Amino acid sequence: xxxxxxxxxxxxxxxxxKDQTAGEAVxxxxxxxxxxxxxxxxxxxGAPCEPAVSVGERVLLGQVIGSAxxxxxxxxxxxxxxxxKEIRQALTPTGVVCSAVVVVNDGKDEGIKTTRAHTVSExxxxxxxxxxxxxxxxxxxxxAGFPTHIKLSPPPGRHIDTVIVNAAECEPYxxxxxxxxxxxxxxxxxxxxIILTLFPNAQGIxxxxxxxxxxxxxxxxxxxxxxxxxxxxxxxxxPQGAEKQLIYALTGREVPSGGLPADIGCLVDNVDTVIxxxxxxxRKRPLIRRIITINGGAVKNPGxxxxxxxxxxxxxxxxxxxxxxxxxxxxxxxPMMGVAMFSLDVPVIxxxxxxxxxxEEEARLPSERGCIRCGRCADxxxxxxxxxxxxxxxxxxxxxLFLENHGLDCIECGSCSYVCPSKRHLAQSIRAxxxxxxxxxx
Length: 442
Hints:
The chain is of the alpha/beta class. The chain has helices at 19-22, 126-135, 148-151, 176-183, 185-198, 213-222, 243-251, 271-283, 313-319, 360-363, 376-380, 387-395, 399-404, 415-419, 426-441, and strands at residues 5-6, 27-28, 36-40, 50-51, 58-59, 64-67, 76-77, 82-91, 97-105, 162-167, 203-209, 229-234, 266-270, 289-295, 303-308, 329-332, 339-341, 354-358.
């Protein structure tokens, strides 16, 4: 059954690059005994965790090894059983250096004992539900990693009437959400039902781009008898999965500048985040794995893999068959919003979504040239900004003008850089200025 296709203003249509992995079922990777697993204490937006174990201590799979004492934080759990080798500073895929617990995997996967928490049919106590989600270390798995228990606790006076599951997956190369929609349909719906119990007057909408018609058909069939859940088709376009753009496409509402989705009655969660909620509440399972797309011309076996948190990108690449040629560029995430990496000795963390191993032909960019004032960046900007002006303010150090012209409203999608005929580093310069301005406000 086809559904209407909604969308937002502007945006771009880069090549999808999804054909190579969209049909590949998720494969589980189990790190072998002796593997060193690195668990950074900062894998989310908010305050970092404090190590909750000591060097030489034996830890179990699912054990808390990073305690979250601050209000906006999320605990870190071990994804293996083994011995704590050291606690040291480590680099994360986001470029942050923070304290990390290093565990040598013993290969036994001996876990802590858990008890079954709830079933869908049972009445869920709001505070207990949020507590289970927090204890499981669930964070947003489609973006920057905001702690989910905080997102599901909007400020007083915010009345949520729409809960959106973001299944757009518009970034090139990425196909994990597509596979999860097909392979974990029941858990996805159960997780959304849990979230809806927290907001009795809300409707749930699962937004899926129409280039995933098989997923739309399967989800529609599964929710046919669910009065509070519906499926909405989205026109394939980038950045359709950006939070503000997705909300506008599905509801016609606009998040105000500097505001949050909750200000207009909406909440948005990624597909895998909703499944992590189901695992936390129904089975008391902590967040210890990510579904990750590995792709690019330099990797031997492109596909979708379930990867334990803490496994290094190097170990991940080897487990996926290794490289066929020396990669020219390595990216954690998608090609539009991902972060280029200079080392494989960094761990998979909660916000890891893809690992691109690109050849020179795939990744080489032309040299940056002078702006010709064509205005293409403004024509395609989904946030309706003037990237060419913001870029100028950054270059000349005009911080006040950058803020006055809504530089903080940039969603860092990279559309401006993509369409620029002069290949100006627009998104990169604006991103750096945003980070500096936000850091100065803390």
